[in-house]
């Protein structure tokens, strides 16, 4: 995915980001994700907490997810076995 993400924020060198972390965080809150490069290679991204929550928030409910599954509507046997198992000496 290198170089394909839409960038709205600044690209920082690691040394600069370390010494100006507060500014990096402020910029992430105001202008979007901030990319940090280490030895010229994109290594990390600083996101605002709101952007992070949007990123990890599930898209819809579990029921909607399962209904959209490729297995939805297939005749899977999901009945639980009534077998009590075998006795075990403890």
SSE topology sketch:
Layout: E1 11-13, H1 14-19, H2 21-31, E2 34-38, E3 41-46, H3 49-56, H4 62-67
Parallel strand pairs: 1-2
Antiparallel strand pairs: 2-3
Characterization of this structure:
There is one protein chain. With 90 residues, this protein is α+β, with helices and mostly antiparallel strands. The protein is built from four helices and three strands. It has a three-stranded mixed β-sheet with strand order 1-2-3. The longest helix is centred in the first third of the chain and has 11 residues, at 21-31. It starts with 10 loop residues before the first strand and ends in a 23-residue tail after the last helix.
The radius of gyration computed from the alpha-carbon positions, rounded to a whole number of angstroms, is: 24 Å
SS summary, helix count = 4
Distance between the termini: 53 Å
Mean pLDDT: 87
- The overall strand count is 3
Strand content: 15-25%
Biggest sheet character = 3 strands, mixed
The proportion of residues forming helix, as a percent range, comes to 25-40%
Helix- and strand-based class?
alpha+beta
Low-confidence stretches: none
Mass-distribution shape: elongated
Protein name: Antitoxin
InterPro entries: Antitoxin_Phd/YefM (IPR006442), YefM-like_sf (IPR036165)
Pfam families: PhdYeFM_antitox
Function: Antitoxin component of a type II toxin-antitoxin (TA) system.
């Amino acid at each position: 995915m290198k170089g394909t993400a839409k960038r709205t924020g600044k690209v920082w060198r690691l040394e600069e980001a370390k010494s100006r972390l507060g500014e990096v965080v402020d910029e992430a809150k105001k202008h979007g994700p901030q990319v940090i490069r280490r030895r010229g290679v994109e290594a990390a991204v600083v996101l605002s907490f709101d952007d992070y929550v949007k990123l990890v928030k599930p898209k819809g409910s579990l029921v909607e997810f399962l209904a959209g599954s490729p297995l939805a509507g297939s005749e899977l046997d999901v009945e639980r076995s009534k077998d009590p198992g075998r006795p075990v000496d403890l």
